[in-house]
Design goal:
This protein is mainly beta and 408 residues long. Among the domains are: 49-86, no CATH class; 214-256, no CATH class; 271-312, no CATH class; 316-408, no CATH class. The protein is built from 3 helices and 33 strands. It has helices at 6-20, 304-307, 337-347, and strands at 36-38, 41-43, 63-66, 69-72, 77-80, 83-86, 104-107, 110-113, 117-119, 126-128, 149-151, 154-156, 163-165, 168-170, 192-194, 197-199, 206-208, 211-213, 235-237, 240-242, 249-251, 254-256, 276-279, 282-285, 290-291, 294-295, 301-303, 309-315, 327-330, 352-356, 363-367, 375-379, 389-392. The strands form 15 sheets. A 4-stranded antiparallel β-sheet has the order 30-31-32-33, with helices on one face. Strands 27-28-29 form a 3-stranded antiparallel β-sheet. A hairpin with a 2-residue loop joins strand 3 (63-66) and strand 4. The longest helix is centred in the N-terminal third of the chain and has 15 residues, at 6-20. The chain is elongated, with a radius of gyration of 44 Å.
Amino acid sequence: MARTPRSALVFLAALGALASAGCPSSSTVKCSAGEVNCGGGCQSLATDRINCGACGVVCAATQVCVAGTCQACPAGQAVCAGVCKDVTSDAANCGACGHACGPGTCAGGACACTAPAVDCGGNPACVNLQTDRAHCGTCTTVCGLTNQVCSSGTCACPAALPDACGSACTSTQSDPANCGTCGYVCPLSSETCSAGVCACPPSLPDACGTACTSKLTDPANCGTCGHVCPLANDVCSAGACACPATLPDACPTLCTSLQTDPANCGTCNHACGSGQTCTSGTCCTTGSVACSGTCCAPGATCGCAGGTACQTAHDMGVTPVAGGSRAFFDCNAPGSAAAALDAAQAWDPSGSATTASLCPTTTVSRLSSGSPQFCATWDHGGALTAGHVVVVQSLSCQCPQPGDPAWY
């Protein structure tokens, strides 16, 4: 009988070990292909040194995990970050794990540096004394200033920041903390340093108190330094205080809108009562609207007589075509010719509404502008058909009958 390879036996044992190790179910942690959930984390049993072949199986310090089996590294190699490395020749692990040669090679476990790099005994061992800020010119010379560079083995400030001020390289031509000379701080907030001189920037050209600002737009220095716009929400425009367009009305302490402010409704300091809102400068029950100082009934809107009177919603009786509305708002008595015209316009706003004498009494007909075309007729007078509406898919209109939908 053929024997099962040892590696296969290890992986079979790993499956049983998962349950004994108390690993969470796969429904808790989803692992990718080739990984197993070990104690809440996904691991590869083929390569993980602390879960080698099975969860919880830890390889010795001198071993790595290969195909789910703990194996010792070949002679001359060491376990570095879980991988066997030849510390006699690996430039990243030369002589010991983690000891790097830098710009050099590793031979016999020792770093060999190639000019201009030299061995300064650190990690990395080889450094370029011509460019390394931590070893500039000599192994022990550190370029100590912020922004300083090592150039040709000498610490120096770069061309863009040529001046050594305190602990950093900077430019006394542009640094507001060292403007013109080291240590001179531009006195105003927002001030800039240009050509070694402190000045307010073009966007904030005026020096007021301790800051650069703009007297054209700053409500704390409007028109002149120290002039504060008196109202809350005031803005400064072209050097003058004014209420903004969204809050156009000046009340004693603030800018507001007398059309919508429940604390200043219609006039300053006129407050709406509980359950009321301010609409069009009138205190009305929440949900209703106002027309020329009159609160409309719930469900009504404002639009009659040039938007100065309340109007009520009416059902025009039939399903509207695209773009139409089931309801129409009119300023006319339901059942009048004018109301019938409004109903027709609600049904199809893109069509044309006309009055006609199709039926025994005057009616309103509406032809849709699309295809197929429809004709809708609202009757509004007489005893036989008054108050009914009919829609036909034809250019030939019909007269409504008592059994057709009612619209008033």
